Every structure is written in structure tokens, then in C-alpha cells.
Amino acid sequence: MALLLTVSSSSLLPASKLPKAVQAQLPKAIQAQLPEAAPAHLTGALAGDAGFDPLLLAALANKPVQELLPFVGSFPTMTQREIIIANQSPEQQLASVQWMREAEVKHARLAMLAAVGWPLAELINPGLGATGGRAPSLFNGGLFDGPVPFFCVLSAMFAAVLENKYEERVSQQKQLLWASPGAAPATAGDFGFDPMRLSKEEGPARQKELHAMELYNGESSAQG
After folding, report:
1. Is the pLDDT of residue 18 over 80?
2. What is the pLDDT of residues 106-159, one digit of tens each?
3. Around Cβ 42, how many Cβ atoms within 10 Å?
4. CA-CA to 97 of 20 to 30 Å: which in 8, 57, 60, 149?
């Protein structure tokens, strides 16, 4: 069972990222499909980097949305994405991966909030009679009942303010890097909020491990 779980979650990872014991137990057909090494733009410098980008989505970083929409723009083919990545310098590749990591961290945190908030809303909120005790949603109904629309508007406003503050922080960190080349680069999703000091007082290796754990938990929540 453990082997099946490992294969299901890691069968497309580079062979160099899999433990030797796991590789030896995999069927020959699966072993033949494993890439020998991670793509060049995935260097392992970022937390949670398992060398997995078979569709080369990092090439789409920072592209305007209208260029990626069908019938409006032209979505780059696999060959075009390979050319985009090949023409980038290592610094540009890292910037593309960091841009995608920002999006991954935000989606991971939303998924974790949803995984906790959805069942809690049904367990402790007594005002869900209109939906039979189920949380308001597209399928359960109730999205336009009572205070739900007002709460959705407030949530959107709060998210917009939070995103604006974060962009200001990232801009300040970029200016600091430009002025002081030796300064530490910004970490994806770092709002500077750590009241319990779970990460601030740790070393770089431990901080990277904690960031990876956050991503893994977020990915598990999204799949659930």
C-alpha cells in the first residue's frame, strides 16, 4: 500500500528525486517513464521543489491573461514553452518559478482555509436552516440568502486590501535587493506575520522545511 501511494504521488517525478529503494520496486514500465533529471529551471532552491513541471507551466509566468485565453490569444504549445524556457537566463527562470510559487502559496492557503472553514460552518453555525444545515455554496444553494452576499463582499474587499499590502511589501523588498545585492530575496507568501515566532527564529534550512510543509498541507487540502 505504501508503494502504491508513493507511485501515485511521485510517479512523474525525476528519477533522481525518488529514493533508490522505491525506484527498485517500481514496475519496469513505470521506471522507463521517469525522467532522469529535473527541468533546468527547477534547481531545488525553493521550498517544496520536487523537480516536477512536465508541462513547463513556468514559461507562462507573467504572461497577460488575454494572451492565454482561447479564441483571444494563442496559448503557447509545448515546443514554444520549451523555447521560452531555453531563451531565459537562470535569473529569469528563477523569477518565473518564484512568480508561479506565489500563486501556488496563495491557492494552498485558500484550500487550507476552505478545508477547515467548510465543515466548521456546518457544525457551529445555527443559521443554515435554508440549506438544510449545509454551508452555502453553488451546489447547496443559499449564496444569496441573508447576510451571505454581504459577507462575500466584505471578504473580497479584505482580500483586495491584503493583496495590495503584500504587493507593497514585495515592491519594497525588490528595491532593497536592488540597493543591496547581498540582501536575502523575498520569500513567496511572506507577509511578515509570525506572532508566535514559529519561523523567524529558525535557520534557513528549517525555514525552507516549514515552507515546504505549508505547501504540502495546502496541496493535500486542495485534493481533498
Report:
1. no
2. 899 889 988 888 888 778 776 665 566 677 776 777 777 777 788 889 989 998
3. 20
4. 8
Assigned C-alpha cell, 58:
513556468
Structural domains in the chain?
38-223 (1.10.3460)
> Are the CB atoms for 98 and 188 separated by under 8 Å?
yes
84: closest CA among 66, 107, 68? 68
- pLDDT digits over 58-69, tens only? 988 877 777 777
pLDDT tens by residue, 180-212: 665 556 677 777 777 777 777 778 888 888 888
Compute the half-sphere exposure of residue 159: CA atoms within 13 Å on the CB side of its CA. Answer: 10
Cα separation, 126 vs 180, in Å, equals: 54
Q: What is the DSSP letter of 169?
A: H
200 within 8 A of 194, measured Cβ to Cβ: yes
C-beta of residue 173 within 8 angstroms of C-beta of residue 180: no
Considering just the CA atoms, what is the radius of gyration of the chain in Å?
21
Question: Rounded to whole angstroms, how far apart are CA atoms 143 and 130?
Answer: 10
Q: Contact 138/129 with Cβ under 8 angstroms?
A: no
Amino acid at the residue 120? L
